[in-house]
Amino acid sequence: MARITSANAFMVDLEPKVVRTDAIQSFKSQETIFVVLRDADGARGMGYSYTIGDGGASILALLKETLLPRLMGQEADRIEAIWQDLLFCSHATAVGPIMSLALAAIDTALWDMRGCKTGLALHVLAGGAKTSVPMYTTEGGWLHLPPEALAEDAKAAKATGFLGSKVKIGTPSIAGDTARLETVRMALGDEYEIMTDANQSMTAAEALRRVPMLERLGIAWFEEPLPSDDIAGHRRLQAQSRVPVAVGESLYSPGQFADYVAADACGIVQADVARVGGITPWLKIAHMAEAHNIAICPHFLMELHVSLVCAVPNAPWLEYIPQLEDIASPMARDGGRALAPEQPGLGIDWDHDKLAALTVAGSAFEIRERAQ
C-alpha cells in the first residue's frame, strides 16, 4: 500500500450539445469537477463529478477546505475506509448533493488509481459481469420537442442499432403526453422500447391518471413521476401500475434507496454514480437491488456508467447522453451497444490539453501532504 501524497482539483464548464429541457428545468451546463490524486509510489488516479449548472464552486470549496486535506497521508488502497471517514468527518452536511458530489470526485479517482495499479479495467475490477450493454437514447426526447421530432429521432436511433428511446413527459395535459408517446409508438412499432421521465413534476393523482395510457402503449418505465421524497406516494403508484416506477437520480445515499426498496415503492433503481457519492456506494446500491430482483438503470454519465453496468448482472440498459466529447475520446460503441473500456482504471481517454484550455479561471488548486 502507498499513502496519498497530493491532490489537484479544477472545474471545466461544458455547454450541452443540444437544448435539454424537462418538466421542471433546463440543463444549463455541466460543471465538471475533477480530482487528480497521487500516491507515494507515483501512481495517479483521476476522477470527476458534475452539476447541471449550479453548485460547482460549493463542491470545490468542500474539497479544498475539508475533504482533500483529510485525505492526505491515507492509504490509497483502503477505499472503503476512506469513503466512510470522509463521510463522517462532515456528517453535518450529509446526506445531500454537495457532499455526495464531492465524495464522488475523490472515490472515482481512487478506483481509477486502483485499476491503473492493478492493470484491471473498472468493469472487471468491480465485478466483470459482461463486456457490453444495450443503450437507449435520451438526447432526442426532450420536452420542448414536438411529437414528430421525437419520432424522427427515435427512427434514426433505431437505424443505428439503438433498442430504445426516452421521452420526457409532464406537459400540462394528459392529451399532450399521450400525443408524444403515441406518435413514437406508431412510428417505431411494438418491439422498440420507450421509456418515460416526468422529472418529479406530477401530483399523485396526475401520475395515476397517466398509468392506463402508459400500460396501453407498453412503456418500459415511468421515471420520477413524483417528488423524490414522496416514498409513500411512489409506493401507492407502483402498487397500481403494471409499468415499473423508476427512481434514483435525485437520491443521494444507499440508505435512501433502501427505504424505497423496503417500501416496494419502485420497480427500477437509477443510481447516479456522482450523486450517490461514487463507485463505492453505487456498487452497494446495485447489489442491494440485485438481492431484491430489481434492475439498476443508472442516470446520465454514460462514459463512467458503462463500466459499472457491465460490472453487475442486473443492469440491462445504459442511458445515452453524450456530454464529454469536447474533452475525451468518444465512448466505444458497436451500433446500439456500448462497449466496456478495456484500459486499466476508469478507461476514459481524457484530452488533457483541452481540459487545461477549458478549466474555469481560478478554480484549480493543489493540496499536498504535510512534511512529517
UniProtKB/TrEMBL annotation:
What's a single GO MF annotation on this record? hydro-lyase activity
Q: Which residues form the Mandelate racemase/muconate lactonizing enzyme C-terminal domain?
A: 147-244
Pfam families attached to this UniProt entry: MR_MLE_C, MR_MLE_N
Does the keyword section mention Transcription regulation? Answer: no
Biological process per Gene Ontology, one example term: carbohydrate catabolic process
Q: Does the keyword Magnesium apply?
A: yes
Concerning SMART domains, the annotation shows:
MR_MLE (SM00922)
State the organism named in the record.
Thalassospira alkalitolerans
The molecule here is called: Mandelate racemase
Could you say which cofactors this protein requires? Mg(2+)
What keywords are annotated for this sequence in UniProt?
Answer: Magnesium, Metal-binding
Membrane spanning stretches = none
Question: SUPFAM superfamilies from the xrefs?
Answer: Enolase C-terminal domain-like, Enolase N-terminal domain-like
InterPro entries in the record: Enolase-like_C_sf, Enolase-like_N, Enolase_C-like, Mandelate_racemase_C, Mandelate_racemase_N_dom, RHMD-like
Q: Which Gene3D superfamilies does the entry link to?
A: Enolase-like C-terminal domain, Enolase-like, N-terminal domain
